[in-house]
DNA sequence: GGTAATACTTAGAGAGTCAATGTATCGCTG
DNA sequence: CAGCGATACATTGACTCTCTAAGTATTACC
């Protein structure tokens, strides 16, 4: 089967999660499901990638966690964006855009040396 | 301008190198310099990343190496793309495009949930 | 001799992947 | 209703891979 986003999440996951949280608090599981749904599975978030990412971003003060309830009444750890997180999101978005456009320019089918 | 792209090359370097070689054989040092120049330093290729990447791609049969001369008459290892490399380049380009458009869609400033 | 071009190496850490584990709750089926 | 599998949600550990940083080595040219 066609391998999807193998290793490409590297260096991008943080921005994706921060952006997801910029629309309001969510628990981890919901973040993953939402990203997958939103991108038609072009982005697949393993739980073993997501939770460690959430921890380190919490440690860095970009997000905050509190135990609460999921939409269907289950115990869940709800994350929300902090001010620092919002700033970080802007930074990483800018970096991504800059980087991605450079890559696209190089990879463009008819680009000439 | 956005600073150093930390780990974003992850999963992208191979495609960039393959694409560079698709315009003709080059030695490693030239590949790095060319990518940097072409992208206005948006993509910076450390030699510690590049040479291992060249080895593994050679081992996988995507590129071939031969000792030769650089343009200015210095000993240099010249790499060139193989058929398998060309195929791999197409594959990775398609994957990158797919992935990058998904990320951009999520990160887009006014995207709504 | 010093500087640039070119290649290579090693040490290290960061971040993902895979896969197992742990609870709770829901919903079925017998 | 008792039992059981499936789903929601979180955690963790062992592993791997690639990148970064920072060095060494060689040759050519001024």
Q: TL;DR of this structure?
A:
2 copies of one chain form a homodimer. In chain A, about 50% of the residues lie in helices and about 15% in strands. The first copy, chain A, is an alpha+beta fold.
Structure description:
The structure is a homodimer of 113-residue chains. Chain A is an alpha+beta fold and 113 residues long. The first copy, chain A, has one domain (13-104): Orthogonal Bundle (Arc Repressor Mutant, subunit A), CATH 1.10.10. Chain A contains four helices and three strands. Chain A has a three-stranded antiparallel beta sheet with strand order 1-3-2. In chain A, strand 2 and strand 3 (75-81) form a beta hairpin. Chains A and B meet through helix 1, helix 2 and helix 4 of A and helix 1, helix 2 and helix 4 of B. The structure holds a DNA duplex (30 and 30 nucleotides).
User: Roughly how much helix do the residues of chain A carry, as a percent range?
Assistant: 40-55%
CATH topology of chain A: Arc Repressor Mutant, subunit A
The amount of beta strand of chain A, in percent, is 5-15%
What's the assembly state of these chains? Answer: homodimer
Strand order of the largest sheet of chain A: 1-3-2
Number of helices of chain A: 4
The structural class of chain A is: alpha+beta
Average pLDDT over all residues of chain A: 91
Radius of gyration of chain A: 16 Å
What is the distance, rounded to the nearest whole angstrom, between the alpha carbons of the first and last residues of chain A? 34 Å
Main sheet attributes: strand count, strand direction, barrel closure of chain A: 3 strands, antiparallel
Q: Which second-level CATH architecture of chain A applies?
A: Orthogonal Bundle
Q: Which parts of chain A are unreliable, with pLDDT below 50 for 5 consecutive residues or more?
A: none
CATH superfamily of chain A: Winged helix-like DNA-binding domain superfamily/Winged helix DNA-binding domain
Q: Largest interface: which pair?
A: A-B, 42 and 41 residues
Kindly provide the name of the CATH class of chain A: Mainly Alpha
